[in-house]
Amino acid sequence: MFNLGLYLVTIVIWGSTWIITKHQVSELSPLHSVFLRYLLAALLLQSLIKIFGSKTQYSPKTHLLFFLLGSSLFCWNYVLFYFAASTGLTTGLIALIFSTIISMNIANNALIFKEYPKLTTVIGAVIGLFGITLVFYEDLSDFKETNLLSSIVLCLIATYLASLGNMFSKILQRKNVTVVSANQWGMTYGALSLLITTLFFDQNIQIPVTISFLSGLFFLAIFGSIVGFWSYLTLLGRVGADKAAYAMIVFPIWSLMLSWIFEDFTWTPIKIIGVAIIISGNYFMISKHSFDLRIRLS
Question: What are 143-159's pLDDT values in tens digits?
Fold first, then answer.
């Protein structure tokens, strides 16, 4: 039941962040938006760690892993996603592209940890991705602006960075570093990297003092970053990268529902079929009666 709760928290929170992200970049640059988000999240996590007395001193090698975690999962991947959102790419399409992280996690898990997926895991991933593609097929066919390719490339690079961040998190958990501590240091290094970049380019940060921006910033920092990443990375350590990443296939459906409510999204027969296919992929991924045949890299 605990794993199910982690799945639900991850799906509901991360499925809600894309629309808020789009509003953030309409008021502040992507670089500054991500910096403020993770600076706030890091400060809040640091306060929690001091209150509950978690370990705060780690070796230089562990800090290198924190830096790699922050750079890949709490920094440049989000800058790229925010830039893609600022080009006009819809939240549904961004969520669709990010769902490819499940395939990237399966590949990286095999390459880095030599943990090869079951055949049914691969089948479930393929089915789920196909279902997501059907759900957003009409949006893909209608989006013909010249910046489409560059926006997709940005999202794919960002997704792969996030997948690498998942691997660094797994390494840290194997070193008995808590998810909260790893996230706090990772977010700190991520925010510092963005601050240095901002100072290097001599950019001034002008924070919009509006209710919509500040409330969105706090939601993204507290729920999207602290709670969302805690639930997902905890799930990653408990069930493995391949099955944890299936939440990345399901949460775009929640994004789709929010787009239906707030962005005039219209349901069509092909989208309903896509949702049904995603549910089928879920069965193949988590079925207790799945085949134990493994896929190995030659």
Answer: 555 567 788 889 999 99
